[in-house]
Amino acid sequence: MILLEVKDLRTYFDTDDGLVKAVDGISFQLQRGETLGIVGESGSGKSVTNLSIIRLIPEPPGKIVSGEVIFTGQDILLLPPDAVRKIRGRRIAMIFQDPMTSLNPFMKISKQLMEMTQLHLGHTKAQAYEHAVHMLETVGIPDARARADSYPHEFSGGMRQRVMIAMALSCEPELLIADEPTTALDVTIQAQILELIKKLKQKTGTSVILITHDLGIVAGMTDHVIVMYAGKIFEQARTKELFALPGNPYTKGLLRSVPDPTAQQGQLYQIPGLPPDVAHLKPGCPFADRCERAEEICRREFPPFVELTPDHHSLCHFANEVYAESTQAKRG
Amino acid sequence: MEPEKISPEMAVAEADVRPEEAGEFVHGTSLWRDAWRRLLKNKLAVFGLVVVVLITIASVTGPTLIKSIFGFTPDYIPTQDTQLVRSFPPFTGPNGQFSWAHPMGTDNAGRDQLARVLQGGQISLFVGIIATLVSLVIGISYGAIAGYVGGRVDNVMMRVVDVLYSLPYVIVVIVLLSMFRSQTARGQLILLFIALGSVSWLTMARIVRGQVLSLKNQEFVLAARATGVSGPRIVFRHLVPNTLGPVIVYATLTIPQIMLTEAFLSFLGLGVQAPLASWGSLAADGVQNIAIFPWQLIFPGVTMALTLFSLNFLGDGLRDALDPQMRTT
Question: N or C, fewer C-beta in 10 Å, chain B?
């Protein structure tokens, strides 16, 4: 069953530097209970896509120019602001990148958790408090009752991210958007947090959109992956397929730049160059200047979105060739 | 991650919070307790705090106490004696003998100076506090809304403040007070509140707006919006409490400033009218007889100066204690 369907979403920012097409024609579907990973470099439009879904783009300068975001049959982009506010937190919740700044430093943890259920579920103070303590226990905060009345600065980074997850899940949302939930945490805490999200997802059946630039996390957590570059979807596939048989030179480059601790390689591969300035895109493929196999057509014409299998699409003039190479490399 | 200053308390909290060791929970110090501790280390601020508290208590209870001990009110004018000169030096009775009845002497009409200074303190402090409260309510709401909404609304709202700012406010207050001159002393006092309150919120609005502008782009505001919290609630429950540090400091410094303005207006005869007294109007009375009855000026003047000094010391101390640089977020 389809929970969320995004169709041709375009979010532009009107800056002094010109029109920045941060998200330019994104479409994808998310099934109930599934996890979708969105990967890409900084500035590729991952976060803007998700802020657009719950309409939190700062306007101005941002503007959702076109598209549909159909969430359980309703187009969120057409709803009045009050109705959107009732969806936020209640049915679609978000976890942010930096737990250090995502909690209000002047409010007790319990108060911040209580606000959610008082607002959306109409809890009384006492009910909300009990629920807050219960949520803190669920996300594995020891001695939750004693700690509920602490202030955020008394918690460590990992603890605060647990609180954020408790907050996000306290109304049992249908969709959880996690925007780089572990980027600001150290590796051991990262694993704990991801394990927690996974566990709670299984328990509640929540769908998850996981934004990250860590391919390892994508491999371990997601069912589908979208690779974004310069506001566009470059490749879209089932996670296993994408890792085994990448159909896009950009994805291949990303996969090659993941460090392999067992390999004896001297130097880590990196994709040459920098992501393009999305305010001044050239007519051709935005990746052409950095692509190993770019040809003349790549600089001249915008690439087609090629269907490799019904479940696997790639934005490249040579998608079929790249896919074939991957298949061959796997056999050989 | 922002660099955090690791105080011993924090280090304990950090270590203790690790999930694997669910040991006994050591409560970290809260922001306000930290600030309070820092304030107590500042000798001048403590001195200021003590003086302000003492003068406030004396002003509030003093006139009643004097009435119950000696039997006269601040506006009691002795009528039985027919002496020409009714103003006695401190600790002097009607016949030149030592007396506890008037520790600060009496004024031209023979009213007890101590009782009048204390009653004047009541009014001066009251004016300062009420006008500051008005400035808090208007200034915080106005500044927070302008800062949070932003864009064109912010522009218009802040230009209004700029225009009001550029008017010489003393003249505005003088015009206001003399135009609507009230017949009763009480009416004049209310007019004074309105006049002082209406100009005192401008700086507060600017301070709060500046704070809100820098706070509203922080992630916790986005997080609050992402959980469906409404705009007004974000402004008044999430943003305003975060601006409290600078607001408290500025409010503490506004009180003496307004008291000084009140004294200035009363000195000119525009503020508090007899039989009510304020430190300004007492000083105005005293200055006429400075050569003969210096105590009439010295006592209200010194009391006022002491209070203003103390409030300023306290405000400075609070600013140091609540310094955002020292704050652990």
Answer: N
Chain A residues near residue B10 by CB distance under 8 angstroms: 153-154
- Give mean pLDDT, residues B73-94: 64
A158 in contact with chain B, both atoms CB, cutoff 8 A: yes
Question: Does A153 touch chain B if contact means CB atoms closer than 8 Å?
Answer: yes
φ and ψ of B272, to 5 deg: -70, 135
Residues A149-191: pLDDT tens digits? Answer: 888 888 888 888 888 888 888 888 889 898 888 877 778 878 8
Q: Which residues of A touch B223 (CB under 8 A)?
A: 94, 96, 102-103, 164, 167
**How many angstroms separate the CA of residue B12 from the nearest CA in chain A?**
9
A122 touches B at CB < 8 Å: no
For residue B65, pLDDT beyond 80: no
Residues A167-184, buried b or exposed e (16+ Cβ, 10 A)? bbbbbebbbbbbbbbbeb
> Which residues in chain B belong to E strands, given as ranges?
none
Give the model's confidence band at A40: pLDDT under 50 very low, under 70 low, under 90 confident, else very high: confident
pLDDT of B98 higher than 50? yes
Strands A232-238 and A74-75: unpaired
Asked if B226 lies within 8 A of A143 by C-beta distance, the reply is: no
Mutate which of B17, B33, B152 to disrupt the A interface (most A C-beta within 10 Å)?
B17
pLDDT in tens, B172-227: 777 877 787 767 777 777 777 777 877 788 888 998 898 888 888 888 888 888 88
Torsions phi, psi of A313, nearest 5? -125, 150
- Tell me B28's DSSP state: P
Closest by Cβ to A54, choosing from B28, B151, B226: B226
Query: How many A-B residue pairs are in contact by the CB < 8 A criterion?
Result: 108
Match 């525009």 to its residue by tokens: B270
- The pTM score is 0.74
Chain B residues inside the 8 Å CB shell of A116:
227
**Contact check, Cβ <8 Å, B28/A154:** yes
- Cα–Cα–Cα angle for B280, B127, B290, rounded to 5 degrees: 10
Residue B24's pLDDT band (cuts 50, 70, 90)? very low
For the stretch A100-122, pLDDT in tens is 788 888 888 888 888 888 888 88
Mutate to test the interface with B, among A97, A139, A154, A179 (most CBs of B within 10 A): A154
Q: Is B2 on the interface with A (CB under 8 A)?
A: yes
Q: How far apart are CA B53 and CA B119, in angstroms?
A: 16
User: Is any Cβ of chain A less than 8 angstroms from the Cβ of B13?
Assistant: yes
DSSP state of B80: S
Q: Which residues of A touch B241 (CB under 8 A)?
A: 104, 106-107
pLDDT-derived band of residue A38, with 50, 70 and 90 as boundaries?
Answer: very high
- The pLDDT value recorded for residue B77 is 67
> Are A146 and A108 in contact, with CB atoms under 8 Å apart?
no
Q: How far apart are CA B30 and CA A149, in angstroms?
A: 11
pLDDT band at A226 (very low <50, low <70, confident <90, very high): very high
Specify the DSSP class assigned to residue B182. Answer: -
